[in-house]
Amino acid sequence: AFSGDDPRPRFRDPAEAPVQTTRQVDFWDMNLFAVTLHCRIASRGEDKVSILGAAIDTHRVEENCTSEKPDWSFTDTFWMDDSCLLWKSVQYIHPGLDPLETEILRPPAAH
Questions:
Q1: HSE-up of residue 48 (Cα within 13 Å, Cβ side)
Q2: E-strand spans in the chain?
Q3: Mean pLDDT of 60-65
Q4: pLDDT at 98
C-alpha cells in the first residue's frame, strides 16, 4: 500500500521525475526488524510483454532499493498497462533469495 496518492499513473510517462520512497521490512531469519529500504521508482518507457503468446503493450517501471543493514541493493521491475494493471513483475523479497516472477494471465473480470 502507498502512503498518500498511488504514484503508478505517473509512470506511464517516461518524462516524469522518479519518485523517492522508503519502507520498512523484517527479516526474521536474520534477526533484523524494521529494516529501512530507500527506493527510487522510475519509468523506463514502453515495453511489450508476452503472456501466453499474446504481446501486451506496457510501461516498464523499475524500483531501485538499498538498505544499510543488511548491506543490500536490488532492482524490482514491473510491467503495467495504461490502466495501471500490473501484468508482470520481478521482485526481490529477501537478500538470500532469488527474485519472484509473477505474471497475470488475464485481467480480472471487473477490470
A1: 6
A2: 19-27, 32-51, 54-67, 72-80, 86-91, 100-103
A3: 95
A4: 97
Assigned C-alpha cell, 27: 527479516
Q: Is the peptide bond before 14 cis (omega within 30 degrees of 0)?
A: no
Residue type, 89: S
Residues 6+ apart with CB under 8 A from 38: 20, 21, 22, 65, 66, 67
The confidence score (pLDDT) of residue 103 equals 96
| % of residues, the chain, pLDDT over 90 | 72
Give long-range contacts, CB 8 A cutoff, 24+ apart: 27-31.
27/70, 27/94, 27/95, 29/96, 30/70, 30/95
Q: Global pTM?
A: 0.86
